[in-house]
Amino acid sequence: PVRSYFVPDEYFNDLTRKNICENRDEIYVDCGAYDGESVRDFYKWCAGLYDKIYALEPVESLKDAILKCCGTYHDLSVITAAAWDKNEPVQIAMGSDLSASSAVYLLSGAKTAIIQGVTLDSIINENVTLLKMDIEGSEMQAINGAENLIRTCKPRLAISIYHQPQDVYDLPVRLLELVPEYKFLIRHYGAGLYETVLFAAVDSDDLKL
Q1: Residue 101 has pLDDT above 70, yes or no
Q2: Looking at 57-195, which runs of residues are DSSP E strands?
């Protein structure tokens, strides 16, 4: 369902589609695909013109929700794992309903679960053009696990930077270490403290500055 208190298509509103024909070779990686809503938003944004979609969501019970939402899309790969800086099991803190919320950092007294962490560098060997991350505080670890992909492909990025206070500074600094040519745009969506997104692109024309 659409979350009415957020801006729809927030990860794509400020990315420019120059010419629809140029998007036929999009390879999109969605870290934190949740129930498939952001995958569906990508599909609308590119008008179905893409080569491949990778949807990473570590909560096993949400795989069926993604397939229900997006199962008719061609070349969709749903990976039940969390983007991380190593290939290893990761302990996550759980909300009251793991299918509704989870965080890849341990909260004192919280219920926990073990999920599989993977590096994007180890599972994707394609020319990724667009990378989205909304992964509850583990964005830095995921970037570190994708440093070869980011350096080599220089994809456009849409990364949440509101989960950890230091991410507003640390994530852009780390990304510039990997790709010095990146230009940045920060947008805040919604009325509360949540939903602040860092966009990055080598070509400033890809951003709605």
Answers
A1: no
A2: 76-79, 82-83, 88-94, 102-103, 112-118, 130-133, 156-160, 183-188
Q: How far is CA 184 from each of CA 116, 128, 149, 168, rounded to the nearest angstrom?
A: 31, 18, 18, 11
Instruction: Look up the pTM and report it.
Output: 0.87
CA proximity to 200, closest of 164, 150, 152, 162: 150
Chain-centroid distance, C-alpha 76: 15
Nearest to 154 by CA among 9, 47, 27, 12: 27
For the CA atoms of 133, 71, 13, 57, the dihedral, rounded to the nearest 10 degrees, stands at -10
Q: Which residues face 159 on adjacent strands?
A: 133, 198
Rounded (10°) CA dihedral 105, 166, 204, 18: 30
Q: How far is Cα 130 from Cα 150, in angstroms, rounded to an integer?
A: 10
Position 8, amino acid: P
For the stretch 9-32, pLDDT in tens is 678 888 887 655 565 689 999 999
Burial of 61 (0-12, 13-18, 19+ CB in 10 A): exposed
**Cα separation of 103 and 73, whole Å?**
28
Cα separation, 123 vs 131, whole angstroms: 14
